[in-house]
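Sat 14:20. Reprocessing the chain from the morning session after the first attempt stalled halfway. Input below, unchanged.
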Amino acid sequence: MNKVIRLAGAMLLATVSATAHAASLPLDLDCSDNGNPAKEAARIKTAAPGVVTRASKHVLKVLAGGKTLSFADEPPYDDPNGNMRYEFCARKEGFILVRAEDIYLSTGKLINEATGAVTDGGERVTLSPDRRAYFTSSQPDGLDGSVWAIHALNGHQSWEGYSFISHPVKAGHMAATLSDERWEANGELSAQATCFYGKSAPWRVKLVKSDGAWDWRPRRTCPDA
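Finished this time. Tokens:
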């Protein structure tokens, strides 16, 4: 009997440890595979059976927080440059990402399954290791880059910027592009900066707040064209 109890205890500790480890890592959701109804149906069947359903071709329903959320496409439906369209993207650890796209912007909605809260998301969403904040990336039409933002879990936006560092003097020009963004263990957001011109080595920057303003640091002087 004692052997059985010890085995059950070890299994419980392993489960708790695995859950704690998972919660200490960032959580990624993305809409990289989109625009195909058959693939969306497969994602729903695999990741969200009984939770996400296609009530009709243009209505997506999600069960969350004890209620049914409805995301209805806006007509005209047959116009490729039409109004808002919704698509199920991903479901992980109690969070659901729905793509929201129109002619001007490709972004998303983040749904908290526990509460049913719907907050602004993006084409990509990464929750911080402590799940107190999340990063989003959205794509405006015609922008050479993406719009990045950081939100509290309740949806409050604390920062918004671009996936590049602007030129310090030339308005409308980039000094460096940003990529490989990630949450650090201490809760800071970092990214790799690469000079837009020249062959300077990339470097790691962090988004920090100084004198009430957010900026990427450390900065380096990049060559001009």
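The chain is about 15% helix and 45% strand.
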